[in-house]
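This entry is listed below:
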Amino acid sequence: MDYDLFVIGGGSAGVRCARIAAGHGARVGVAEDRFWGGTCVNIGCVPKKFLVMAAEYGAAAQDARGFGWNSAPGAHDWPGLIAAKDKEISRLNGIYRRLLDQAGAKIYDARAVFIDAHTLDVGGERVTAERIVIATGGHPTGLDIPGAEHAIISDDAFYLPEMPRRVAIIGGGYIAVEFAGIFAGLGAETHLIYRQPLPLRGFDADLRVGLAEAMAGNGVLLHPDVLPTGITATAAGKQVSLSDLSLLEVDLVFFATGRAANTRGLNLEAAGVKLGGRGEVPVDEGFATSVPHIFALGDVTDRLNLTPVATAEGHALADSLFGGNRRGVSLENVPTAVFSIPPIATVGLTEQEAAKRGRVKVFVAKFTPMRHNLTGRARRTLMKLIVDEASDKVLGAHMLGEDAPEIIQGIAVAMTAGATKADFDRTIGIHPTAAEEFVTMRTQTRVAGPDMPAV
């Protein structure tokens, strides 16, 4: 056949798998029909974090007055920010291509579609491969409501020609709360509309409460327990109708209502690859689909849709197939962050998840960050540890507050190694930092368990 391995998709999972497999000596082809680096690099976590940083600089300029700097934020240059972001993303695109080229993989700037289980149509060229990887990622979805055509999705937000003055964001997940912080931080009147009582369903309850309070404190206008029922274009902008019968007048409506796997148009039925109920590609522990020599990685499997997980899966599959090192990827204790303002980071079980398994000790600390004792900004940090009562093993660590993602990354190493609360307690803290609170929490807040009412 033409290739030992052909990878469909040039995102985090696909590029890593192709590069490592080629490094092991395999004949590798990889196709991407949109942009190298995938969602994260181009229309996801990387450009999003640049926008979050931009929003935070405005607050930092205000906060500097508390430290003697006579400064204030001026008018924000949205086109300048987008141009700078685009330049950096273009640089990263080039890096991804160079990594593949240097590893010896054949690059196709084209769409790949199955003809049969070993044959692909790649931009009009017929290509055969012993093994094929589906790493096509996901795409944002909107709502099927009247006037939905007047809303944008997250892909569009990174290319807005100008900063909107009034924004309605529909959704309560990662993307929704992150862009709420971005737009509010850059001065827009920002409405966040979500059907749950609190944002970030699935996260620890204390973090959800803390984030809602923080966003309200940052000026985000929260609309919990409601749904949008329609969008109308008006001479002044857009009008959003809500299920509580209220109306919002805005310039931009932003759907942040979920993502779906990119499987449409791949002609997977011709290869015999079966899909799940949400259009995702189910896989076994070795990333194999219903066809043993066809594999799937990353967001297209809709398991744990995080860039580092996709990258790890790609590396593990390449090592397993061509490196003589058969291995998988554990989805236990995977740390993650939400780049809201302030950010959230978490690793392990929530209190609610842990309590279903057995009795746990809960430690919670809330305090004003050191800098804000001088700035006067009403911002609180929350830290939380969930500890198994029987073994003393730390089952979950959660934080809301500045530098949370940087701090939790280190905590994740300890938890992956099986650290106990006693290990945390005997670790010397770095003073004065927020991080030291994780090793000085001694007072138990409560006990939770399957026989106790949920918090």
Observations:
- The chain has three domains: 3-140+260-322, 148-257, 342-446.
- Residues 148-257 form a domain with the FAD/NAD(P)-binding domain fold (CATH 3.50.50.60).
- The chain has a mean pLDDT of 96.
- The first strand starts at residue 3 and ends at 8.
